[in-house]
Structures are given as C-alpha cells and as structure tokens.
Amino acid sequence: MIELGASSGLAPMAGLVAISFFSFLAGQICRKWPEKVRDVAESLDGSLLYLSPEAHRALIRVCGATLSTMSFAALLAAAVLF
Known about the structure:
Blueprint (H helix, E strand, L loop, with lengths): L9 H23 L1 H9 L10 H29 L1
Helix pairs in contact: 1-3, 2-3
C-alpha cells in the first residue's frame, strides 16, 4: 500500500543533487571551452569524420546547454522529494 506524506529518504535526494552538480560542471566545461572538449573528443569518437569543426563545436555547445538544463531539472526533482 502506498503511504502519502511519508519522506522518501535521503539517498534519492543526495543522488539527484550529485547528478545536478556533475551535469552543471560538465555543461559549463562544454559551454566555456568547446575547442578543448573537441580536442579531447578527437581521440575518443569518430564523429569528427562526419562533422565539420564548426558543427562539432555547435554540437558541444548544445550538449553543454542541455547538461545545464538537466542540472536544473535534477535540483527541481530533489526539491520535490524534500
């Protein structure tokens, strides 16, 4: 049976705060230094063969914005669990 009004515990909130923190950091790194991220990504993924450097930088910036949005959503979910 589901109990309404009961606290859901501290572990899910701590997990969401950790997700928020790390996604915020990754988003800021992607948004501030897309060239450095591109240099690191050159050795890791093969998408550089199919994308121009400008398109790859734009993709990195969009990923950074998405990670920042995910950070906000995780904090909002942690607040709802509180």
